[in-house]
Design a protein that fits this description.
single chain, alpha/beta, TIM Barrel, nine-stranded mixed sheet, 26% helix, Metal_Hydrolase
């Protein structure tokens, strides 16, 4: 990847020759050299967005240079999130700029939401706009939707190959529809091979996969996986040549136990591992993203030097970007975290692309660079009303929530024809209705938040509207409020709005600052817990209601889905 023009490269060399002054110099820096795994003393010269020199010297020309003394502090490369879902109710700009203040300055992002909101031309303009942020934004090339869509042509060869060739797209996947490879999905295999020809790795999604399945996926070209839940899972993947991201996420906070398990097994080689939060919701990322992962790893016995390399150099190497990212060395993008203590990964100061994001504990404000209206991402105009017919429930098969990710089918024996279901039954009405009002899918869900009158959410896997509740009256109130907000998550009980999160960007993203979203997220979880919600993260629960990569039963645009058979058990009804 070439980030600088010839003229710029000559200018960088001129800094070394003493005819051009560096922009910034970090003096007396004790920095981690990721190549020798040693802490070394040096002065670090930065010219605009690039590190041009690391060593004992100071430049001859310093007119206009800003000096920053790092005496007594420790300097490490900016952290990299290799598996980001920056759309978890927050918008990507707000997510990454908030996380950057805690040291995560490079993000490799899911592109699924763009597929669902924008055409390709607008999307490419959008991701080019994101490259103007003072953080480093790269993207995946999705091959599937994680659910069953009405329009199965959303993912097509022409678009996938155009994404593959985009310079800001650096990996394929994550591959949730891997079972289709095993059953002869040659189109998917073709897409994978085209990505591999471009030198771009393929991210798998292989929870619970056997060694046999992992071997087959390696033969198909899968490069890495983030779905290890135990130390044994990690070792199984490493032994087969995978690179592995260790996960600390809202519903899979496995990282501490994995680290302890790997160390207990005597593992000393971590060069093919990195960290991920796998799409934290606002409340979960309150203290940051990769900095939190590093902290958990160090607390559980991993040497600090190893943890910092896993957070920077290892993912850069995985994405074939070692020459630009992941280290403090000449030629790299100036992504630098300044720490008060080697054991404390929460930076006092952060530099990204050569710009101060945080300095001496104070965040530097930056204006927004994304004009959402320019890309036609605005509040949703729902030109349909909820009708009595929409709230008729006669399906014989319901959805039984076992935990955060598992939903089983069950036979409905209760009388659900009334306007309210007693909370003692643990059942609620659920309807997924097309955001354009063309179709609906109705059934009963057991074990969500049975004491709650209503939750209505335009945040879902596809942007369609989820209606859940034990009271049809409360569902109508929540639906009306959601429409007024142009998209939102709204909780109602006994006629009273208890909590809400406005989502005016396409009905799935907020405009609010993260500092405002975090308490909203916490309040929604608090209210749901008080009304019987027994799981870890309601944002994920809403997202996973339609996700076909999880067992066993889902509600989708086409109807109720048997995941294992990939069959629609009860089809959607046209409105």
């Amino acid at each position: 990847m070439t980030l600088w023009r010839n003229r710029e490269l000559r200018q960088h060399v001129n800094v070394i020759d003493g005819t051009v002054a560096p922009s910034t110099i970090l003096t007396n820096a004790t920095y981690l050299n990721v190549y020798t795994n040693q802490w070394m003393e040096a002065n670090v010269w930065i010219y605009e967005n690039r590190i041009v020199y690391v060593g004992e010297n100071l430049p001859e020309e310093t007119t206009g240079t800003n000096f920053y003394d790092c005496q007594g502090k420790f300097v490490v490369p900016g952290y990299i999130e290799p598996h980001a879902h920056p759309f978890q109710a927050a918008n990507p700009e707000e997510t990454v700029m908030y996380a950057a203040k805690t040291g995560t300055t490079t993000f490799v992002n899911d592109n699924l939401t763009w597929y669902l909101l924008l055409n390709k031309k607008k999307t490419f303009s959008m991701i080019n706009a994101f490259s103007k942020l003072p953080v480093n934004m790269f993207w995946w090339n999705r091959f599937d939707s994680q659910t069953i869509l009405k329009d199965d042509h959303v993912f097509n060869t022409r678009d996938v190959l155009d994404w593959a060739e985009h310079p800001l797209v650096i990996q394929g996947g994550e591959l949730t529809d891997w079972p289709s490879l095993l059953t002869g999905g040659d189109r998917l295999l073709y897409w994978i091979q085209e990505m591999k020809k471009l030198g771009k790795p393929i991210e798998g999604h292989l929870p619970g996969a056997s060694s046999r399945t992992l071997t087959k996926m390696k033969l198909f070209g899968i490069s890495s996986d983030h779905e290890s839940m135990t130390a044994e899972d990690v070792l199984k993947r490493l032994e087969l040549g995978y690179r592995v991201s260790l996960r600390y996420s809202p519903i899979r906070p496995d990282l501490p136990e994995i680290i302890k398990g790997l160390l207990d097994k005597g593992l000393s080689q971590f060069d093919n591992m990195s960290f991920t939060m796998d799409g934290p919701t606002p409340a979960f990322m309150e203290d940051g993203i990769i900095n939190v992962c590093i902290e958990k790893a160090i607390e559980n016995g991993l040497p600090a030097e190893t943890a910092y390399r896993m957070a920077s150099y290892h993912p850069a190497r995985h994405f074939n970007m070692e020459e630009e990212f992941g280290s403090i060395a000449p030629g790299r993008v100036a992504n630098i975290n300044i720490l008060l203590d080697k054991q404390n990964p929460h930076p006092e100061s952060v530099i990204s692309k050569g710009k101060w994001i945080k300095k001496d504990g104070e965040a530097i404000p930056y204006p927004s660079v994304i004009n959402w209206e320019e890309f036609d991402i605005t509040s949703v105009e729902f030109d349909w009303e909820l009708t009595d017919e929409d709230l008729q429930f006669s399906s014989p098969i319901g959805m039984d929530m076992v935990n955060d990710v598992i939903i089983q089918p069950y036979t409905i024996v209760s009388d659900v024809s009334a306007d309210q279901i007693p909370s003692s039954k643990s059942e609620q009405f659920i309807a997924l209705i097309d955001k354009h009002g063309k179709w609906r899918v109705n059934t009963i869900i057991r074990g969500f938040a049975p004491k709650l009158g209503a939750l209505v959410s335009s945040f879902s896997a596809t942007g369609d509207v989820i209606h859940i509740g034990n009271s049809k009256k409360d569902i109508r109130i929540a639906a009306k409020r959601m429409r007024e907000l142009g998209g939102a998550i709204v909780l109602v009980d006994q006629g009273e709005i208890l909590a809400e999160m406005p989502l005016p960007l396409g009905g799935v993203m907020s405009k609010n600052a993260m500092e405002e979203l975090i308490p909203m997220n916490k309040e929604i979880k608090k209210v749901l817990k008080a009304h019987g919600y027994a799981y870890e993260d309601p944002i994920y629960s809403l997202l996973f209601l339609s996700a076909f990569h999880l067992p066993f039963f889902r509600i989708t645009q086409q109807g109720l889905l048997d995941v294992k058979k990939r069959e629609i058990v009860i089809p959607a009804t046209m409105r």
